[in-house]
Amino acid sequence: TMIISTVAAVALTPVIVMLQSKLDGGYQAAYNIVMPAFVICFGLLSLIGWFFVREKYVESDSDSDNVKLTDIFRLFKENPPFRVFTSASVFVGFMWTFLFATAEYYVKYAYCVDFSTGALDGGTYALLSLLVSLMMVLPTLLGTFLATPVIRAIGDPMKTQRAMLVIEGVFCAIMFVLQITGILAMSPWILFFLMFVIITAMGIEYVPKEICSMEVMDYNIYANKRDRCAQCNAASRFVSKMQGAFATGIIGLMLAAIGYEVDSVTGAFAGDPSIMPTMLTMFIAIMGLIPAILAFIGYLILRHYPIDDSMREKMKSCK
Predict the structure, then answer these.
(1) For the segment 216-227, what is each residue's pLDDT rounded down to a tens digit?
(2) How far apart are CA 15 and CA 146, in angstroms?
């Protein structure tokens, strides 16, 4: 269901752009039609997926191991791998959101708008928006496919995750440098190449990250003789949901701070055209510089991850 919905979401912006010229309300009217239609379709697909879920209920005859809210704090204290892994996730988890936060804004104003006339090349914008959306799907799938051989070549899931963070951080930094030097605005293919490498690395990183998340759960059983898998998973999900909630507000504040304004009817830029070069640089700062910093912080934190091969063997022998 999620894959089907993601593929459908790829076409949202091109459809809105094509419809805006045919409706009296312009961009806003097209958006008001396309988005509710997508939400309804996504809801129906989710319901279909829900009907396929089957869970077994296991009744416990003991309440000696009841879960308490304070167990989350105990996890941070007693489980060093959990503490390191979750702390890094607080920073690394924002990278995807920031990378795509202003991508469509950048391709629109860097490659599709003639500011001498204010004209938007709708066909080019629809194509580039589609490519931005495809960057969310295709490199991720490729990275997931490549993850297993990459882990085998490096020999350690955590080292693989750190290596991918280095690649992501370096290419995000390159993106920002190329913007400052004026090279990035010369061709959209430079931007898409950089994004393709970064997202592929993120796709590769996903698999070792999941392996390490399971190690974190196993460590608690090994070291503390208590199964706290549910709490570990719940804490990770909580961090992820909080990031999603904060990211939307943070990006909105950033766009407002750099002076981004659009006409609600046409979708055209309504601010001072003279600030656009600076605004384009700020878009890439959000897409490139901030993720580079987050990747660097995450890498430094994950260097303290305590589970190595010898620890893994000990954990396996206790099962």
Answers:
(1) 777 777 666 666
(2) 32
